């Protein structure tokens, strides 16, 4: 039984790697070293740009009809994360919301996720949000407003809980990271 479980797990991993290689060209941009689970996830590929070394956990839903979702380098997403880049137009009189196809400019807004961000499992990122460099979004959070660099946010709606580093440590961290890039 253990062998069967191991074998099936191995097959799923190989299938995911192959589908990842095939699907990466569908993204607007996709840097090297990205790993995502296209089989059990939904992406609006044409509006999404991925940096280098991005990991997107299983069951992701990254969706934006018109605006872009830009994801920096070395970003990690836990399982079941949703990024929603827009709303439905709900302001038309005399029509069912389902039948309204026209979007208003305020219905969509770009989402930017900077480098070195970690988004925990089952978090939701809504339109118009920027997640600053090095920030952390705790599992299950709903992010409705932009997050400052190196902040740790949690809750619904997400609020700053604390910062990863002091201001002095942030400068040291940035210099060390920059040296790694050189």
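Sequence proposed for the structure above (182 residues):
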């Amino acid at each position: 039984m253990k062998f069967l479980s191991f074998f099936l797990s191995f097959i799923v991993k190989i299938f995911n790697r192959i589908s990842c290689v095939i699907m990466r060209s569908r993204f607007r941009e996709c840097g090297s070293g990205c790993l995502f689970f296209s089989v059990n996830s939904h992406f609006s590929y044409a509006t999404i740009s991925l940096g280098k070394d991005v990991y997107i956990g299983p069951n992701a839903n990254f969706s934006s009809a018109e605006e872009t979702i830009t994801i920096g380098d070395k970003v990690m997403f836990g399982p079941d994360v949703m990024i929603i880049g827009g709303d439905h137009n709900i302001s038309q009189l005399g029509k069912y919301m389902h039948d309204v196809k026209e979007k208003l400019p305020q219905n969509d807004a770009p989402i930017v996720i900077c480098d070195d961000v970690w988004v925990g499992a089952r978090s939701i990122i809504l339109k118009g949000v920027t997640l600053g460099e090095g920030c952390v979004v705790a599992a299950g959070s709903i992010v409705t407003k932009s997050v400052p660099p190196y902040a740790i946010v949690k809750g619904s709606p997400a609020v700053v809980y604390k910062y990863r580093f002091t201001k002095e440590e942030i400068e040291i961290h940035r210099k060390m990271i920059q040296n790694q890039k050189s």
